[in-house]
Amino acid sequence: MWWSLSVLALATLTPRVIAQCQPLSSLTFQYQPSLFDGVGARVIQNRLTKPRGIKFDSAPNPNLLVVQAGQGIVALTPNVAGCAGWTKKAIVSNAALNHGLEINGNTLYASSDDQVYAWSYNPSTATVSGNPVTIVRGMSNGAAGHATRTLLLQPASGSEPAYLIVSRGSTDNYDFGCSDANTGRCQIRRFPLSPAPPNGGYAWNSGELLAWGLRNAVGIALDSKVTRVWEVENSSDNIRWKGQDVHNDNPSEELNVVYLAKRGTPNGGNYFGYPSCFTSWGYMNGLQTGDQFSFEMEQGGGGNATRNDAWCSNVSNVMRPSLSFQGHSAPLDIKFYTPPSDTTSALNPQWSGHAFVSFHGSWNRQPPTGYGVVRVPFTNGVPTAPSNSNAGYSFIVQAPDLSKCGAGQCIRPAGLTFDSRGRLLVTSDTTGEIFIVGPPNGLS
Ligand SMILES: *[C@@H]1O[C@H](CO)[C@@H](O)[C@H](O)[C@H]1NC(C)=O
Ligand SMILES: *[C@@H]1O[C@H](CO)[C@@H](O)[C@H](O)[C@H]1NC(C)=O
Ligand SMILES: *[C@@H]1O[C@H](CO)[C@@H](O)[C@H](O)[C@H]1NC(C)=O
């Protein structure tokens, strides 16, 4: 009995690592997307299980680490001898991991709905060693709540330590606890990585509050000067305003900027309004795109009458988005583009500093929207389009027939990352694919 149990335990702890090669020539899109702005795209891996967060490590021939939601982490390595494609191996088996992934040299971070874990990681062998330690704990929103906890490394700078920035969403479509920062939900916090986090990890609410009133800020990215975090927010379904059903186009999804230095406004400059205030898309009843409207009086029984349209519109109370996206686009990741010095196989170098955002796609809109990747032009570190524009971005890749998306016959972009050649890699969770976007002659 004892003997067979320990053999079992050993077998679970040391899974056999099987590296699998997928030749590039064998791969095609399950559902071919349309391509715009002169880009090409090709699948580099398929048959994954819900691939979400992706990131390259620092090995000389970098490995692409991928979170498979509900399974763990795999490493994909290009150009291994004998494989004309990418070689895959599982490196962490943990069914609780679902999206978040970061790498800081020899440390690998990943998240469940409740915890952020860290492993000691060797990029040259793409292996972890030992058990993970908990860095942050106490983030669960319960079984029905938004479950992803996106991770973003803020590198050490001068006397400032490195931080791990973590985003946590709401329990529900409307989560009325979120106008109180102490609930810990609908917000972004950061945690110093040195000195070492306490045993058992930081309690969530002990992290520094960077922003709150964000329904679900799934995508977060630092700007090049590391003074601001940009976040893309997935906003609410089934919204009403002044008794009218306005949900098909409202509220906007948001591109927000979060200042790392606190500003002198009553809410520290970092309250974004959810669930009291929402952002308008289009021009309903005199509101422009980007204007704030109140949801308080639409709730059964009425809400807080002080937080009316005028209160929501006052920038001393609520931060406005830098840019709006079509309601229900479901933005899940954002990455900024820095072209490499050799641009022969890179995306258009004129897109330097532009943001790329994955749109997972809608279910609560007719006709559907999203199901692609967009480019958001930036000029001098801010979106080129004014904040009241609803044309501040354009698709580079999108499913060609959105009417098929409800039946699952479309790409569903989730995680994004750039490679060293200036090409964008994209995970599509429901189709189990990773594809690469670059110039048509730079995809091999
Ligand atoms: C209503 O909102 C105002 C403005 O944020 C706040 O000062 C007040 O405490 C809120 N009232 C209640 C009952 O929560
Ligand atoms: C906006 O809010 C601030 C702070 O509460 C207040 O001082 C100011 O009068 C408000 N502005 C308007 C136009 O209501
Ligand atoms: C995004 O919003 C959609 C509705 O538009 C919702 O069904 C989905 O759960 C949200 N996903 C995330 C990750 O917030």
Automatic annotation (TrEMBL):
It comes from the Eukaryota. Pfam families: TrAA12. Residues 1-19 form the signal peptide. Keywords: Signal. The keyword Signal applies. InterPro entries: 6-blade_b-propeller_TolB-like, Beta-prop_PDH, Quinoprot_gluc/sorb_DH_b-prop. Residues 34-437 form the Pyrroloquinoline quinone-dependent pyranose dehydrogenase beta-propeller domain. This is Pyrroloquinoline quinone-dependent pyranose dehydrogenase beta-propeller domain-containing protein. It comes from Botryobasidium botryosum (strain FD-172 SS1).
